[in-house]
Amino acid sequence: METKGEEIEMKRGGERASSAQTEEEGQRPPRNEEWRISSPIPKKQRIIQQHEARASESNVNNGDRSISFTLTDPDLLDCPVCAQNLNIPVFQCRNGHLACSSCRVKLGNKCPCSSPFGKGRCQAVEKILESVKISCRNRDYGCTETVIFCKKHDHEEMCIHGPCSCPLPDCDFIDSSKNLYLHFSTKHSESAKSFRYGKHFSIALDVQQEYLILQEEKGGTIFVLNNWVEYLGNVINVSCIAPSAAKLEFCYDLTARSTGSSVYTKLLSFTEFVPAWVVLEHCNLKRFLVVPRDFVGLDGHLKLELCIWEP
């Protein structure tokens, strides 16, 4: 029995020695202990973690500390007085109410809550305005710019991707100018007179006809010849369907000839850009040609010649 006991003791000692040796050599513990320590990560979760780790490492290497978030209340960064986008400087009254610079002046430096604004500015909100980037409102029409929130209004005033609407009264199509030109070519080609840049062409315009739509043959740009009747005669000009901030200017030469004589009147000018053309609203345009009443022919038409040049 003593021998057997010694053998048992020696075996247990050997197991302890073997276990100690396993720990010293850094070998993995038996499989059943491994499963008790931690469960294996599912493959899909492991892939997601690897992707996030690579993205985080990439941001660190690029020095990118920005984060994305969703603003659930879009009015949060608007002036509570005028409801326009806040811009720097932002002033704060003693009760914590905000106001933009122009509203502070209009209110006589006094908040509607009767607390004075003074010279106190809300630096926390100003920091947010300087840090938050937002997409242009014309994103759906082709603008890919993201701008600092406090510069959003300035950018959108000059954005060349503003939406344009179909000039036909019974069509409600609205899209980028490029898509509008394609729409008109495919859907309303018979409603426009085609022309080419740099080529003079004749127009017989009914004296009471309010407008004539023109479309350039190659680029598809849409123009409108506007006509309205005044006491002295007909007032005529040309506008271009394009965003108000469009940078290209189209020069045009418009001539009206008197029937049966060599007398004529002429206008050399630039088209004005109109993103949403509406009948009779073109009367507000600044440049126009006045055609005397006696230029009207016996058939009730005006004889016009027009040439539009590409920028």
Structure, explained:
This protein is of the alpha+beta class and 311 residues long. It folds into two domains: 74-158, Herpes Virus-1 (2-Layer Sandwich); 164-309, Apoptosis, Tumor Necrosis Factor Receptor Associated Protein 2, Chain A. The protein has helices at residues 2-24, 31-37, 43-62, 101-106, 123-131, 152-158, 177-187, and strands at 90-92, 98-100, 133-135, 146-148, 164-165, 174-175, 193-195, 201-206, 211-216, 222-230, 233-240, 251-257, 264-270, 272-273, 289-292, 301-309. Strands 7, 9, 10, 11, 14 and 15 form a six-stranded mixed beta sheet that branches. Strands 8-16-12-13 form a four-stranded antiparallel beta sheet, with no helix packed on it. Mean pLDDT is 79; it is low at 1-26 and 29-39.
Write the layout of secondary structure elements.
Elements: H1 2-24, H2 31-37, H3 43-62, E1 90-92, E2 98-100, H4 101-106, H5 123-131, E3 133-135, E4 146-148, H6 152-158, E5 164-165, E6 174-175, H7 177-187, E7 193-195, E8 201-206, E9 211-216, E10 222-230, E11 233-240, E12 251-257, E13 264-270, E14 272-273, E15 289-292, E16 301-309
Parallel strand pairs: 7-9, 11-14
Antiparallel strand pairs: 1-2, 3-4, 5-6, 8-16, 9-10, 10-11, 11-15, 12-13, 12-16
